[in-house]
Amino acid sequence: MISYLSPAEAIAHKGLRLVIVQGMPSPWGQAAKTIFEIKGLDFVMAPLVMAGTNEEIVAWSGQNSAPVVAWKDEPPLNRWMDILHLAERLAPEPALIPADAWDRAVMFGLSNELFGELGIGWCRRIQMIGPALGAPQPPEFAVVLGGKYRYCRKDEQSASARIVDTV
To answer: Where are the domains of the chain?
Structure first.
């Protein structure tokens, strides 16, 4: 069972904070949480309600998405690469970013194909949202997520080919 602080408590916390989607295993949030665990970093978590307004988190971070990560008084982060760099800065060992430039370029390139916009995770999300948006009465979550992630039919139609190409 995950223990969450309220958004207000997490925002006021002076250490490392992580906002993740509550009640849903979001791959991006789970990745950030796992990075911190591998690094042995202490952190607190706050919930983001999927398809909710999340006013406190939005006011603080400018995001209604997760993960959001913040360290002390530094600005909140929401991009996977920025979160990884923060973790490396806070706990250099074990290193998750290769020291060798070629290996680092390959790692970031492959990671982008998995986690980045129109990467495998993004395409799978499009494949899940698309059919729901095509329903006679689309569920609210699909409408919200479709708008949030700029759903378009063209991206849905190319998603399977992008996934296969990447794999």
So the answer is: 7-90, 117-166
Read off the pTM: 0.87
Q: For the chain, list the strands marked E by DSSP.
A: 16-21, 44-48, 68-71
Q: Order of strands across the sheet with 68-71?
A: 44-48, 16-21, 68-71
Do residues 97 and 84 lie in contact, with contact meaning Cβ atoms separated by under 8 Å? yes
Q: How many beta carbons lie within 10 A of that of residue 16, not counting itself?
A: 19
* Superfamily in which the 7-90 domain is placed by CATH: Glutaredoxin (3.40.30.10)
Q: Which two tokens stand for residue 156?
A: 């849905």
> For residue 82, what is the enclosing H or E element?
helix 80-90
pLDDT tens-digit series, residues 81-130:
999 999 999 999 999 999 999 999 999 999 999 988 899 988 998 999 99
Tokens of 94: 């074990």
| Cis amide linkage into residue 92, ω under 30° from 0 | no
Q: Report residue 139: phi and psi, to 5°.
A: -65, 150
